[in-house]
């Protein structure tokens, strides 16, 4: 079949966006991988699918596939691209929309300066719901947060890293590092992503605190490897830092591909993610 798509990015986290309202989509994991392949396909960290929603009050349904072919619950940078896509394609004339995802309803809003703000919903802090299996682990209370010691085995050597575990609809484990540039993202990211305590795997965040309203962040994403930015990772890092008493809202997040801003008023409150969404080109591919 011939598939029409739009290539987009949000702070360098890149996407193939597909209108599945006007096209029939039913791809296998292998076909998603082929589309995401940077040499033999279009290339993307994630594929975003735009569908009609059957949920009352929702404008669209948003589905997300990592470049390993797996469908996942949430993608923050993708949510901004999604909002820009439906506006640019004339699928809505509203600047603020309600979008159904696997993880609940999110609400992106187009800003006058071209950026997009997304109400990502409240973070989930209960380990079992992340899901995170705490059996055999000792939580260490620090401030209002609980840090969990994760044991990693690196070339026969055992190392323990302290991570804040939470969900933004998708699972995150965030650690504080002295310097994001030298953080062992490639080395320990895959070990954390596949750690036995995370039954659904996890996104591994490495956060350098610059000051109380500014962090630098790298994320080794579940099912995609390190990306130039991770929107839900930025939300998770800001929430973890605020809960630990290290950060104040709003938090500026410098990712390798651009800048994001996160606002959070505290437990039970939604997290707001603001940042860019850019259309790169339109294309058609035979699959
Ligand atoms: N890049 C994303 C997150 C995409 C999904 C993630 N890799 C997962 O598997 O949960 C973002 O901007 O949030």
Question: What class would the helix/strand composition place it in?
Answer: mainly beta
Q: Bin the helical content.
A: 10-25%
CATH architecture of the largest domain: Roll
**Basic shape:** globular
Distance between the termini: 5 Å
Enter the CATH topology name of the largest domain.
Diaminopimelate Epimerase, Chain A, domain 1
Number of discrete domains: 2
Rounded to the nearest angstrom, the radius of gyration is 18 Å
Q: Average pLDDT across residues? A: 97
Strand content: 35-45%
Number of strands: 19
Unique bound compounds: the ligand N[C@@H](CCC[C@H](N)C(=O)O)C(=O)O
Uncertain stretches of 5 or more adjacent residues = none
Q: Under the CATH scheme, which class of the largest domain?
A: Alpha Beta
Quaternary state reads single chain
For the largest beta-sheet, the strand count, sense and barrel status come to:
19 strands, mixed
* Number of alpha- plus pi-helical segments: 4
Subunit structure: Homodimer.
GO cellular component, one term: cytosol
Pfam family, one: DAP_epimerase
Keywords: Amino-acid biosynthesis, Cytoplasm, Isomerase, Lysine biosynthesis
């Amino acid at each position: 079949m011939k598939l029409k798509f739009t290539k987009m990015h949000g702070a360098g986290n890149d996407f193939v966006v597909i209108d599945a309202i006007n096209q029939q989509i039913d791809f296998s994991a292998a076909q998603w991988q082929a589309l995401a392949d940077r040499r033999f396909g279009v290339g993307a960290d994630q594929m975003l699918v735009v569908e009609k929603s059957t949920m009352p009050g929702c404008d669209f349904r948003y589905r997300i596939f990592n470049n390993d072919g797996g469908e996942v619950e949430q993608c923050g940078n993708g949510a901004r691209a999604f909002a820009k896509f439906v506006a640019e394609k004339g699928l809505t004339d509203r600047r603020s929309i309600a979008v159904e995802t696997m993880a609940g309803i999110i609400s992106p809003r187009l800003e006058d300066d071209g950026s997009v703000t997304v109400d990502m919903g409240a973070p989930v802090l209960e380990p079992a719901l992340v899901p995170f299996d705490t059996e055999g682990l000792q939580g260490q209370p620090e401030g209002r947060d609980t840090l969990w010691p994760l044991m990693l085995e690196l070339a026969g050597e055992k190392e323990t890293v302290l991570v804040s575990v939470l969900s933004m609809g998708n699972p995150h484990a965030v650690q504080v590092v002295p310097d994001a540039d030298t953080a062992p993202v490639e080395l320990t990211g895959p070990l954390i992503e596949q750690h036995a305590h995370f039954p659904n795997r996890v996104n591994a965040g490495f956060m350098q605190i610059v000051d109380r309203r500014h962090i630098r962040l790298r994320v080794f994403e579940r099912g995609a490897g390190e990306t130039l930015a991770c929107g839900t990772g930025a939300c998770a890092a800001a929430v973890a830092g605020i809960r630990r008493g290290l950060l104040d809202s709003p938090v500026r997040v410098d990712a390798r591909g651009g800048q994001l801003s996160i606002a959070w008023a505290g437990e039970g409150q939604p997290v707001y993610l603001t940042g860019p969404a850019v259309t790169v080109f339109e294309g058609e591919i035979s699959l």
